[in-house]
Amino acid sequence: MTGTVIITGANGSVALGFVDHILSSYPTYTLLATVRNPSDANSTKLSNMITSKPNAKAHIEALDLSSLADVRSFAEKTAERVKSGKLPRIKAIVCNAFTWSLSETKYTQDGLEASFQVGHLSHYLLILKLLGSMAPDGRIMLLGSNTHYPDRPHPLTKLIAEIPEDVEEIVKPLPDEPGQEHDRGFQRYGIAKLANVLLMHDLNTRLKKACYSPSFTK
């Protein structure tokens, strides 16, 4: 059994457990474990995990989700590798990576709000560019959160996730009011996760998927 599995933010705590499971349970699969900077100290544990499985078909690859151009380039090169037979068709894309800031609004090099671009928009682009390279039974995994409910308050923030009337404010939000930086940070994170849930429902009109919240991971 062959196939390629792609995971973003592969050096994160939830992702490391997933990587270990893939390496142990699906040794014939090719794993593309993507991180923003493979030489970063945060990737050491991931590198050691892969090295401990000498027969693993796993590669740590750079993918900067704060750059739409980088996402597009990675996806196009990956699609070409699949087309040429250098990679098996994609069995799964695990959209795990995220970022947030609870102290101030942060922006990507594209000038967009970082939580939304890294947590949702770049994954959306990655998925769209790679759909044609997926196996017939391929899976797309989008991560939600218990902060994404627009009608359910979260104990750690006073602001709920909701799509603003002017959707441009999602990627270019208004300045935080003094004292609201923490709550707005949670809200921005929740909006990115809410967008993932909406995307999952949209994709599900054509593809069968399963939803998952890392908050329930033991």
Strand percentage lies at 5-15%
CATH superfamily: NAD(P)-binding Rossmann-like Domain
Mean pLDDT: 88
Count up the domains.
1
Quickly count the helices: 6
What's the CATH architecture? 3-Layer(aba) Sandwich
User: How many strands appear in the DSSP assignment?
Assistant: 5
Structural shape? globular
The low-pLDDT segments are none
Report the radius of gyration as a whole number of Å. Answer: 17 Å
The side-by-side strand order for the widest beta sheet comes to 3-2-1-4-5
GO molecular function, one term: 3-beta-hydroxysteroid 3-dehydrogenase (NADP+) activity
InterPro entries: Ergosterol_Biosynth_ERG27, NAD(P)-bd_dom_sf
Give your account of this protein's structure:
The protein has helices at residues 13-25, 44-51, 68-83, 114-130, 168-171, 181-203; strands at 4-7, 30-35, 57-62, 90-95, 134-142. With 218 residues, it is α/β, with parallel strands linked by helices. It has a five-stranded parallel sheet with strand order 3-2-1-4-5, with helices on both faces. The model has no long low-confidence stretch (mean pLDDT 88). One of its GO terms (molecular function) is 3-beta-hydroxysteroid 3-dehydrogenase (NADP+) activity.
